[in-house]
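User: Sequence recovery, please. Input:
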């Protein structure tokens, strides 16, 4: 045990010395690159500790000192922060092709999602194809309008469930109820099925899987600030999220296979959902295949699930006697 501890300590010290050397070396290079001004940095960690537990307030304070465009060093990564409305419009509207690519966090490297997921792809023919498919067949105004009856039906189910709890004198978990409604609305739009059934053990596992993905994706990860650590995955974030991603990708893949088998039947009735449309256009778009479709569902589901779980704190009073935000979960 002593030998193991000594070896680990030696590796840690070696890594710290290497990081310090790279920090000094990169710092000299940065000073030659005309970076915007920014707060003073400490070796290895840069400005990580300057952000504190309220990064938005820390950045606002730095902007008052260093101006609307400043540079920070987060670990070994140089980050340029823009807080000016005029400059932000210039970047996001006029220079969007240059700045539209996103930083790929280590968590989305799980299951190679960053190679197929629309938000993480660089501007390319594949990105344009997936964006066109999303805008035309998933998020288009026509598609959303055609599902108005479905949204109304799910909201009525939610109201009925709350009414039943009121009659029984039971507390209502608002966050959970909103999450379940969001998932079922999404799954009906995509697959014409309810993926969350309060009485189903499979649904409970699905709910836990989605929630675990959100927790892991939101966990601060050292590998995002020190790329040298990516292969080691020191916190195990990528390993755990790979397990959860694979579960959902397998679920979506099975549903696609079942639909394709059903479509071969003579008595098959079209569902007119997203999966039906994607199956139809798959033969017309060379880049579109089962793997891309499952990752497209994974991306869409994760965004909607995150929004469902965000309904947790409700402000009471509507501007009159506004009370402190109350947790209903």
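Assistant: Recovered sequence (329 residues):
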């Amino acid at each position: 045990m002593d030998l193991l501890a000594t070896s680990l300590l030696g590796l840690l010290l070696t890594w710290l010395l290497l990081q310090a050397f790279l920090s000094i070396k990169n710092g000299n290079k940065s000073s030659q690159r005309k970076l915007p001004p920014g707060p003073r940095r400490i070796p290895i960690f840069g400005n990580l500790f300057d952000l504190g537990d309220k990064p938005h307030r820390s950045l606002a304070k730095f902007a008052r000192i260093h101006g609307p465009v400043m540079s920070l060093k987060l670990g070994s990564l140089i980050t340029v922060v823009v807080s000016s409305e005029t400059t932000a419009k210039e970047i996001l509207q006029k220079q969007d092709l240059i700045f539209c690519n996103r930083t790929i966090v280590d968590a989305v490297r799980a299951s190679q999602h960053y190679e197929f997921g629309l938000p993480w792809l660089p501007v390319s023919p594949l990105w344009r194809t997936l964006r066109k498919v999303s805008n035309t067949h998933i998020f288009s105004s026509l598609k959303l309008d055609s599902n108005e009856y479905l949204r109304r039906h799910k909201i009525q189910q939610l109201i009925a469930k709350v009414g039943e709890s009121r009659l029984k004198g039971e507390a209502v978990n608002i966050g959970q109820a909103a999450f379940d409604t969001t998932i079922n609305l999404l799954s009906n739009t995509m697959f014409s099925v309810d993926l969350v059934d309060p009485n189903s053990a499979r649904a409970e596992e699905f709910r836990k899987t989605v929630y675990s993905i959100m927790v892991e994706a939101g966990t601060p990860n050292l590998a995002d600030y020190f790329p040298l650590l990516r292969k080691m995955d020191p916190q195990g974030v990528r390993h755990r999220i790979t397990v959860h991603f694979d579960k959902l990708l397998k679920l979506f893949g099975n549903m696609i296979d079942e639909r394709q088998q059903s479509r071969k039947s003579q008595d098959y009735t079209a569902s007119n959902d997203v999966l039906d449309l994607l199956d139809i256009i798959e033969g017309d778009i060379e880049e579109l295949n089962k793997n891309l479709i499952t990752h497209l569902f994974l991306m869409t589901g994760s965004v909607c699930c995150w929004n469902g779980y965000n309904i947790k704190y409700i402000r009471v009073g509507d501007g009159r006697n506004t009370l402190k935000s109350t947790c209903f979960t």
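Residues 2-31 form the longest helix (30 residues).
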